[in-house]
Write a structure and sequence with these properties.
Elements (H helix, E strand, L loop, with lengths): L2 E6 L2 H4 L8 E9 L3 H6 L3 E7 L9 E6 L3 H17 L4 E8 L5 H6 L2 E13 L12 E3 L8 E4 L3 E8 L2 E8 L5 H18 L5 E6 L4 H9 L3 E13 L2
Helix pairs in contact: 5-6
Length: 236
């Protein structure tokens, strides 16, 4: 299906696609057809953010909301052109993928600048006990989060997708492998108890997070090929 890319610089016109005060523009792709049809359907979008860095190589970041690589290529081209006109030296973005680079990175000539995190997986039910009474369910208003579990310093936001649970990890400070094992055990126990029928749990872990890696190995997780990668596109 043919699509056309629209550059939106008015926050009111962009609506929820506008990503806060640092957004410079939003590039949206809509199906070609009547104006009324196109206006009502957004197939994908890229928000261009100027993060205000003095270094032009660190200034512009693209935030992707596009399920199809075919559509992402023209969106990123538009964002790159806008960043180039504004004096940017590179355009950076983060995307989830398996081992091979996606079509957008290949076609645009972007280079991998670092792995952000990798997903680790194990089967369910886990059959692990609760190890730390301080770990508890916490309030969360994040969209798509079934529940949050953790302490005031470290937690998982748990997303449920059919028979799979995705545990998105975050914490305020450094922690030990023992503490992270207790946290992860409590999250697995909650899945076993409150969400029977799930077949797998996945946890995201940064490449240098040795404490979390150790905790995940203790609990039977193994690293997968699914990861989030930062790409950098030179605008020279």
């Amino acid at each position: 299906m043919a699509n056309f890319v629209e550059c939106i610089t008015d926050p009111d016109a962009a609506g929820p696609l506008w990503c806060g005060d640092r957004t410079v523009a939003v590039f949206a792709t809509r199906p070609e057809g009547s104006a009324a049809e196109a206006a009502g359907r957004v197939e994908g979008s890229v928000a261009l953010l100027d993060l205000g860095a003095d270094d032009p190589a660190l200034r512009f970041v693209a935030v992707l909301d596009c399920p199809e690589d075919e559509i992402l290529v023209p969106l990123l081209r538009g964002a790159a052109d806008e960043a180039r006109k504004a004096g940017g030296a590179t355009l950076r973005w983060i995307t989830e993928e398996d081992v091979s680079p996606g079509k957008a990175a290949v076609e645009l000539g972007a280079l991998e600048s670092g792995e952000v995190y990798r997903w680790w997986r194990r089967g369910l039910p886990a059959g692990v006990p609760v190890r730390d009474a301080a770990v508890r369910q916490l309030p969360s208003e994040e969209e798509g989060v079934a529940f949050r579990i953790g302490t005031d310093d470290a937690w998982y936001d748990v997303e449920l997708d059919d028979d799979r649970a995705r545990l998105v990890h975050d914490r305020e400070d450094e922690s030990t492998a023992d503490a992270l094992t207790a946290l992860t055990s409590a999250a697995l126990h909650a899945l076993d108890t409150d969400h029977p029928g799930l077949r797998a749990a996945e946890v995201n872990a940064a490449p240098d997070d040795d404490g979390l890696h150790a905790a995940l190995r203790r609990l039977g997780f193994a690293a997968t090929n699914s990861r989030a990668v930062e790409y950098t596109l030179s605008l020279a």
